[in-house]
Amino acid sequence: MYASREDIGYDFGDDSKVGSKPIKPNPNIDGGWAWMIVLSSFLVHILIMGSQMALGILNMEWLEEFNQSRGLTAWISSLSMGITLIVGPFIGLFISMCGCRTTAIIGGILNALGWILSAYASNVHYLFLTFGVTAGIGSGMVYLPAVVMVGQYFQNRRALAQGLSTTGTGFGAFLMTALLKYLCTEFGWRNAMFIQGAISLNLCVCGALMRPLSPKELREKYVVRNDSEENRAKALSHSTETIKSNGVLGEEPEKKEEVANEEVLGNVQHIEIGGKSGGGRSMFGLRLFKTVSQLTVTVRKGFALWYSSYFGAASLFTNRVFVAFIIWALFAYSSFVIPFIHLPEIVKQYNLSRQDNVFPLTSIIAILHIFGKVILGIISDLPCISTWNVFLMANFTLVTCILILPLMQTYIGLAVVCALIGFSSGYFSLMPVVTEDLVGTKHLANAYGIIICANGISALFGPPFAGWIYDITQKYDFSFYIAGLLYMVGIIFLLIQPCIQKKQSREKSTEEAQV
Predict the structure, then answer these.
(1) PROSITE patterns, per this entry (predicted)?
(2) Residue 257 scores a pLDDT above 70
(3) 322 and 204 belong to one structural domain
């Protein structure tokens, strides 16, 4: 069965040709090089997200070194985590212009530079700039391409592919916690950050593996589509019809833009042919002019796509379920980040350091996080299961665990709750899938950039807020209660908005039938 324009969510050009002449599926879609993309994304999650999940080790070192309040010191980790995600929309613009591969390589260099410069920190504010801002921006420039590329290379097994790639966060949290603890013990935290900066240069290798798909390969990806996946995408969000009824986001401006760009390049080629008789000097000038023109065209096309997605008449923000998704993201991520940053300090307060040294609670979260992502990804790919429902159930489990965590004051009780937190937080692997089903692959980079930007705001203010509450009450209990209640507000938005959308769709259908 061939996918219609409405099912896909955007146009490829001449639909009649696609429908009358079957195109052989690309072997690199759902196979072949696609698994190298998964490997690349997996390593990116280990080096970036895994390292950030292990920052609780460095946070304790910074508290001892600089003797600042917990609230102020927590800003170092929060800035790094938050900026990694907040820069998502701007990285989407960079991807539109330069592509995922170039963006990721530049980001890898910037991230490594941030770690290395942080080794020479003389105060907390220095770390704000080097580790929080510099390393954070570099991380964002690698993280978003790693997620987007997996979405581009997979069609039928997207949830499983995203689950496998994002398990790197769990592996990374487990490995990096042990690595940073060892490096800090043996060499001190400054040398540990210098070594970690050298390791982070491997992000450039990961970026080099992100081979872009050609427009033809992207077209072949959507020629054949399973009925089950069509039904699942339709069931996920009726609000996508609003965007699809208006055509492609910014489709007409893009077509006009392409015509203008072709005219520019055509004129350049005409001048170049006419100038061949003008000698070597004029040819060099023409080639330079052609290069600049091509670069200008690339920048204009990238900016046009980015601008139409955010600010066009049919922008992403006309999708009400997507807006509810953004509101959820503003509250959700801090509930996952706060335990990683403050659990080592909580364990120390409860005099559980001996048991925690044998098997750290953050490592329990990390290990179960791995299984959660893979298992939830496999379940979501089943034809009879809705990805949206799996996503909501995991969210409910996680928010419940956050609310009851302060009640646990024994190692066994904390370990059980941390295990549930780790498994249920595996829903992160479903976020790109849900986002792609809402807006389509063409706008995945910009849409997911908005989502992780909202997550970044949550991560930015969550840990400092928890530290500030502790400085006032000398307890972490209220930090978890408030974070859990805000998280619940976000989940309620996810539940209410689709129901309202379905009701409006039914009322509209009834009115049309009466007319």
Answers:
(1) MFS
(2) no
(3) no
Q: Residues 326-349: pLDDT tens digits?
A: 888 888 877 777 776 777 777 777
Nearest by Cα to 236 from 9, 486, 487, 514: 9
- C-alpha 279: how far from its chain's center? 51
What pLDDT was estimated at residue 501? 64
User: Which residue segment(s) compose the domain that 371 sits in?
Assistant: 315-505
**Helix, strand, coil in percent for the chain, rounding step 5:** 85, 0, 15
Is residue 453 domain-resident? yes
Last residue of a domain, one of 169, 187, 215: 215
Q: How many distinct structural domains can be found in the chain?
A: 2
The reply to whether 238 falls in a domain is no
- Residue 190 belongs to domain with CATH number: 1.20.1250.20
The answer to whether residue 393 sits within a structural domain is: yes
Percent of the chain with pLDDT over 70: 72
Confirm if 446 and 308 have CB atoms less than 8 A apart: no
Strand partners, 224: 2
How far apart are alpha carbons 100 and 433 in whole angstroms? Answer: 18
Measured CA to CA in angstroms, residue 94 lies from 106, 206, 356 at distances of: 11, 18, 43
Whether 391 and 447 have beta carbons less than 8 Å apart is answered as no
Q: Tell me which of 191, 215, 239 is where a domain ends.
A: 215
Residue 224 has φ and ψ, to the nearest 5°, of -110, 135
Mean pLDDT across the chain: 75
Is residue 202 domain-shared with residue 330, that is, in the same domain?
Answer: no
- The Cα–Cα gap between 79 and 400 comes to 27
Q: Is 299 exposed, middle or buried (0-12, 13-18, 19+ CB in 10 A)?
A: middle
**pLDDT reported for residue 24:** 54
Closest CA to 438 of 239, 229, 230: 239
Helix (H, G, I), strand (E, B) or coil at 214: coil
Query: For residue 392, is it within any domain?
Result: yes
Average pLDDT (422-446) is: 80
Q: What one-character-per-residue DSSP string does 93-106 give?
A: HHHHHH-HHHHHHH
How high is the pLDDT of residue 318?
Answer: 77
Q: Are 448 and 148 in contact (CB under 8 A)?
A: yes
Q: What is the pTM of this model?
A: 0.65
